[in-house]
From TrEMBL:
Entry-linked NCBIfam families: PRK05749.1-4 (NF004388)
Keyword terms, alphabetized: Cell membrane, Lipopolysaccharide biosynthesis, Membrane, Signal-anchor, Transferase, Transmembrane
Protein's UniProt keywords contain NADP: no
One example of a Gene Ontology biological process annotation: lipid A biosynthetic process
Bilayer topology: Single-pass membrane protein
N-terminal signal peptide: none
Active site: 59
First-tier enzyme category under EC: transferase
Organism: Rhodanobacter glycinis
Family: Belongs to the glycosyltransferase group 1 family. Glycosyltransferase 30 subfamily.
Protein name as it appears in the record: 3-deoxy-D-manno-octulosonic acid transferase
PANTHER family according to UniProt: 3-DEOXY-D-MANNO-OCTULOSONIC ACID TRANSFERASE, MITOCHONDRIAL-RELATED, 3-DEOXY-MANNO-OCTULOSONATE CYTIDYLYLTRANSFERASE
Residues annotated as domain 3-deoxy-D-manno-octulosonic-acid transferase N-terminal: 33-210
Amino acid sequence: MRYLYTLAMFLVTPLLVLRLLARGVRSRPYHRRWPERFGFFDAPGFSGSLWVHAVSVGEVNAAEPMIKALRRDYPNAPLVITTVTPTGTARVHQLFGDSVFHVYLPYDLPYSVGRFLKKIRPRLALIVETEIWPNLYFACRRRGIPLMIVNARLSERSLRGYKPLRALLRSALRCVSLIAAQSRTDAARYRLLGADPQQIVVIGNMKFDMPIPQGAVADGAAMREHWGPRRPVWMAASTHEGEELAVLEAHLQVLKRLPDALLLLAPRHPERFRLVEHAVRSLGFAVATRSIDRVPSPAHQVFVIDAMGQLMPFFAASDVAFVGGSLVPIGGHNVLEPAALSVPVLVGPHTFNFEEITASLIHQGGAARVAGVDRLGPEMLQLLLDVARRERMGQAAQQVFERERGAVQRIMQLIDAQLQE
């Protein structure tokens, strides 16, 4: 199975190169760095580095408190962060600057993986959430590099998708020293995929340990003063194609009852920022953008947040937050950011990426689920009109967030044990 898998990877390599070139058209910095996907980059001269792989923005955000703990507890160890997407790369640079060494993860080709590991020479590999690459995992085992999957999660859909490769993935997972799962459900799915039950522990979700950015609450309060402290404000965060139109239709319903209401709209992907802005303008809304206007004025009806990594102050300035990727079958995004700020949350029917967190928030009264696109407007309007309910939901959301903290401390204890072996 592994030989067939590797052969397939070599056969699709020309398509991978074409994909890199196409992506480079949209992102010139990524175009300059595409050789890194094949293990070609300047050797940093490291020995005994700590390597963290976080595929994109969500995983980087989840790993932030762990990375800071690694920097604190192992100040002399070089820290290597790998990502796959340009947005994940931008988030790494925004959070850590030059204090870490960033490189793109190579494709799962034997020679690419070998070059990569030879250059960073890791003492420990930490894979965040759900990245299973057989050749990479086998290469780590051959070189005696302990490998941990931290904040491990596995959705039901991913488990079904892995089914044709289950024999190969079972062998790959036996190369892993430890799987630190987010929940009992995730642990059970890793066992079904073939992981040794003895190598799995449940530690909770690191995203509960994410820090609230310094000044986020104060910045949110300042924005509310700017556009009017009594103004109804709701936020649609991390939206995808197919969701913005539903969000804007919901805002039209809100405006009929609350004509001074403001929508803060944050598309998930930077390449869609301009497209979403044009769509908002074409529907006749008075619109402003983060890149040009910085903050909305009382005259604006919709504010497009066309910037990465800047959502927390806007969550803090909102009365209610809708978290996207949930009206379409993407699986939802992080509901903990608004919860940490005591902001009530609405989600759509598709939340399988964060099913236990979302279910916990809903069960405790900190979040509510809308059945579909036609229910977003009525549900949002109802919340914006009911101050008492918003306060109850916000308090419940924040209590869930605080109660579940501590995963990073548990992970660090496991990391310490691995490094002392």
